[in-house]
Specification:
Chitobiase, domain 2; 2 domains; alpha/beta
């Protein structure tokens, strides 16, 4: 399988916001790296296979580029791992996707990215500053680096509606902490 400017990815709909995001990110990053386009009828068939495994992987099976994982979030993680290891991306800081353009990429049938799984369930950090417009970039960066945990100050957490939390950070586990005037902390 070749990824280059003369090749297209078949356009698809997946019926889930997370898988739609994974597909649009794959198409965007493949296009930026190798100039791969999108076609309604022919080209590389992208398959997202949510299966019973406990890890995610990427394989080539004929004209199919198959992303497997135990859930939709892991499929998204597989897309970002593919972007880093195959397409030449680096997600070093929020809002700054670094790219070493690949030009043409040859992928042989078989395993492209072998089974990967998180060694710990929750991965993230503590945010001790007010939410700002760049938080969309932060959410994007967290997903690309497979982070799913954000501890924030209660005073900032309360500023968001539940809908905003789901839109900004759909797969992030939110925890909030409140520090009282006497210095005690509650989580």
């Amino acid at each position: 399988m070749r990824l280059c400017k003369d090749v297209a990815i078949k356009n698809k709909s997946f019926g889930s916001e997370t898988l739609e995001l994974a597909f649009s990110e794959l198409v965007s990053m493949a296009g930026r790296s190798t100039c791969v386009g999108v076609s309604e009828k022919e080209g590389i068939d992208v398959v997202f296979d949510v299966c019973g495994t406990d890890a995610y992987s990427v394989t080539v099976e004929g004209d199919k580029l198959v992303f497997r994982g135990p859930g939709e979030v892991e499929i998204l993680y597989a897309v970002y791992t593919f972007a880093e290891e195959v397409l030449g991306f680096c997600f070093f800081e929020p809002g700054e996707d670094k790219l070493k353009p690949a030009g043409t990429i040859e992928l042989n049938d078989g395993v492209v990215i072998s089974d990967r799984k998180a060694l710990i369930k929750n991965r993230g950090f503590i945010q001790e500053f007010k939410f700002v417009e760049r938080n969309y970039e932060l959410a994007d960066w967290m997903a690309k680096n497979r982070l799913n945990y954000l501890l924030i100050w209660m005073q900032y957490y309360d500023e968001f509606t539940q809908e905003a939390k789901v839109i900004l950070f759909p797969e992030v586990i939110f925890k909030a902490r409140h520090v009282s005037k006497n210095g005690s902390v509650t989580v």
